[in-house]
Amino acid sequence: MSFTLREENFVVIDNGSYEIKAGMGVHDTNQPPSVVYQTSQIGTPLKCERINNWEELETLWYRLYSRTIRRQILFKELPIKKTRNESPVLLSVPTSWTKEEYERITQIFFESFNVPGLYVAEQPLMSLYGCGSVSGVVIDIGHETTNVTSIVDSLIVYHSIQTLDVAGREADEHLLAHLRADEQLRAEFGDDVDTLLDLEFARFVKEAPGVCDVSVGYEVEMTTEESKEVVPGVAAVAAAAPPTTQVPVIPPMERAELEYNGRKVTIGSYRHSLYNPIFDPTLIGRTTLTGLAEAIKLSVMTCEPAEIRLRLWENLVVTGGGALIAGRSHH
Fold this sequence. Notes:
Belongs to the actin family. Strand 9 and strand 10 form a beta hairpin. Helix 5 crosses helix 8 (199-207). The strands form four sheets. Strands 3-2-1-6-7 form a five-stranded mixed β-sheet. Strands 8, 9, 10, 11 and 14 form a five-stranded mixed β-sheet that branches. Strands 4-5 form a two-stranded antiparallel ribbon. It is globular, with a radius of gyration of 22 Å. The chain has two domains: 7-127, ATPase, nucleotide binding domain (Nucleotidyltransferase, domain 5, 2-Layer Sandwich); 162-324, no CATH class. Helices cover 31% and strands 18% of the residues. It is built from 13 helices and 14 strands. The protein has helices spanning 54-62, 73-77, 99-111, 123-130, 168-181, 183-189, 193-196, 199-207, 220-226, 234-240, 276-279, 292-301, 309-314, and strands at residues 11-14, 19-24, 35-38, 46-47, 50-51, 89-93, 118-122, 136-141, 146-152, 155-156, 162-164, 256-260, 263-267, 316-319.
């Protein structure tokens, strides 16, 4: 088969525990994916970033609608002909996937998808490349886990990877607990309160534009007073950094209004703190886990030689579904 490698022909597929995304073209790294599927439509092909069910994962890639008809992401949702496929695939995967899993993935794509080329890349590296850097710390706030990965000159420092079992799922549950305790919201739902106040509503609130954000200045005063430790490199980066825009001030007790299932409801000020468990897992009873700030510090401090740590502190990349929440950069 003869074909021309064109940037617009490449297909990029990003695999996640909550959803899988696909799109065509690598010429613009900021373009949104053209296909997004929630993995729950198939089952649980991935669990905590590990392959849980090969059959479901392949079904998700093929997008089966019946036992005899296969509607694939590559050949149904994207304008690609299987018989004459000139679209190589870039598949981004978690760092925890093994060589054996790589081999099986390769077999699936070449034998079933008939792709002319396949490159399996690790997600933190692709996130860093997308920002135009080759060294830095990638903070991936996913649905089931939060991963912190240090990368030096395009090489992942595997022993520096920190994984927290607190992520978007816990944010949903934390928000839901506050929603159910909100007496004004319960009164606004009326008789349907027990039916409508569920995780689906919590996700709707979290994803609604302009409703939820990450609280700014979380425990700043306590950290300043109680912690005197200076992390090498951080002070230098802070001193050299240009002045940032003013941190937005969050009104203390305002309620946000939104419409859900034909009725208008209001959400209390707890909507600013749904991601706080990631920074302080003790809020949800996870007393043995470290918070995100400590995980970032541990990841950087395990990298040698010490001189490279300054470069890592200069490039902190936040990605994953949790990166979409407003205010996370100031936090």
